[in-house]
Amino acid sequence: MKLNYFEPFNSYIDLEKMELNPEGDLIIRKLSDMVDSFQDKEAAKEALKGNPTIYKFYNVQIPEEDGHLQHCISMIFPGKIGNEYYMTKGHFHKIKDTAEVYLTLKGKGKLVMQTPDQKSKVLDMRQRSISYIPPYWAHRTVNTGDEPLIILGVYRGDAGHNYGIIEEKGMATLVLEKNGEVVLEGNPHY
Ligand code: ZN
User: Fold this and answer.
1) How do the domains of the chain map onto residue ranges?
2) Which of 17, 92, 106, 167 could be 163's S-S partner, Cβ–Cβ 3.0 to 4.6 Å?
3) How far is the CA of 183 from the centre of ligand 1 (A)?
4) Residue 64: its pLDDT value, please?
5) Which CATH superfamily is domain 14-186 in?
């Protein structure tokens, strides 16, 4: 049998310009794309007037097949809505028992995770930290710094995304700023 080999290739990241080359699929999430993700509805409504970009990510173009490895570069901008730091929407994988690895390339933040039965875990992310997100854990990245938080994520080719309960309620643990400190707090909607 003759195999059809997929061609190996490189991507190059520019941490200063915040670009990936080749670009792949660039997805930009503005506040209007995720306004319900933030807890402070008044602050979100006010910030919506300027509709800031919260984060963007570059999906390297890889077939959605289980033998492949999807990888993407996520760039979360610094900022807050009310006292809640800018963050990604957060997701489970559509194929629930698929893991992911995050390598932090720049900036600092928190990796907020939870299981379907709402066990919660938060890890620190800082330059050169390698975070393991085991199967079943939903994951969201939060930028607690004052520069962009830039991450490489690698996961199974066909894992997919499921925003489900997180889109409705947020995640069980919130990352907030209080008196200049980063504070973890339980989400009152849980
Ligand atoms: Zn993921």
Assistant:
1) 14-186
2) 167
3) 24
4) 96
5) Jelly Rolls (2.60.120.10)
